[in-house]
Amino acid sequence: MDGSKALRAGLERVFGEQVEVQRCQIHKRRNVKEYLPESCQKDYDRRMRNAYAMNNYTEAQEALQKIFRQLGRINPSAARSLEEGLEETLTVQRLGIGAVLRRKLATTNPIESCLSTVQRVARNVKRWREGNQPLRWTATGLLEAENKFRRIKGYQEILLLKERLNPSRIQPKEVRAISRLNSVAGSLTVPNIESRCNQLKLGHPPANTKKS
């Protein structure tokens, strides 16, 4: 999500105050960039992009904190913009999500693409009436957007993410799949988890396992 207070209030009302929130990394970069003079925009945007590309949560956090301290000396407004919600821009790193899936979950691009279809479908409506008309047009637009939905890259890790977020709601068949994933991914670094999940999907055993 972006920094909207209304969205945050809605999330907490539906999912509770302990809900895990991922703030959009692209919005954060843009917001900081707007405060900086043109001469240093590219440099700081590149450094923030590199920090968000890091797989290790602690390293990414330290890189962003270093940028924050430097911005505090040259542009306090940019520093405050970076500091606001900084920890929540790193939720995907903290949860250990691999690089491929993280690129989809770290920004609001997927939902913005979906909502742009809703806007296109409803663009000719000139007079909005009370009642459920807005809901009906929104539903129509979402159904249209659904026709263009594609399986996201790194989707194999969603099961692991589900376990970390809601372990009590995992189904028995999912427990077996997660156990299998964890047994071979536990000793791997985060960048290698996607490739290991792909191997499991294709039925390939881990490299250090012998077939009986």
Count of individual helical segments: 12
| Helix vs. strand class | mainly alpha
Mean pLDDT: 80
The proportion of residues in beta strands is: under 5%
The helix/strand order is HHHHHHHHHHHH
List unreliable stretches of 5+ residues.
187-193, 205-212
| Number of DSSP-assigned strands | 0
**N→C terminal distance:** 48 Å
Tally of discrete structural domains: 3
Our Rg estimate from Cα atoms comes to 21 Å
User: Roughly what percent helix?
Assistant: 55-70%
Shape category: globular
Taking the sheet with the most strands, its summary is: none
Would you write up a description of this structure?
The structure is a single chain. The protein has helices spanning about 5-15, 25-35, 40-50, 55-75, 75-85, 90-95, 100-105, 110-120, 135-145, 160-165, 170-185, 195-200. The protein has three domains: about 5-100, no CATH class; about 110-145, no CATH class; about 155-200, no CATH class. The longest helix has 18 residues, at about 55-75. With about 210 residues, it is mainly alpha-helical.
